Amino acid sequence: MKTKEIRALNDKELKKQLEAAHKELFELRFKAATKQLKNHREIPRLKKNIARLKTLIRERELGIGV
User: Fold this and answer.
1) pLDDT class for 47, splitting at 50, 70, 90?
2) What is the spatial distance between Cα 50 and Cα 64, in angstroms, rounded to a whole number?
């Protein structure tokens, strides 16, 4: 998900996206541990997306967002 798409979401949707991303990360880590994960680049991609979501949530809390 791109930053522009994330900024268009409201607070409730952001938290929902963050929760879904954490759940997906858990599942990917589980698949990696059991050698079922085909593309290992999915984990860092998802972690970066989680960081984007958390950053935007924090910006809104501080009133910094554009």
Assistant:
1) very high
2) 19
DSSP string, 20-42: HHHHHHHHHHHHHHTT--S-TTH
- Helix/strand/coil for 15: helix
- Does residue 39 register a pLDDT over 70? yes
Whether residue 66 is predicted with pLDDT greater than 70 in this model: the reply is: no
Q: What is the CATH number of domain 3-61?
A: 1.10.287.310
The residue extents of the domains of the chain are 3-61
- Evaluate whether 1 touches 49 at the Cβ level (below 8 Å): yes
CA torsion 14-18-24-25 (nearest 10°) is 150
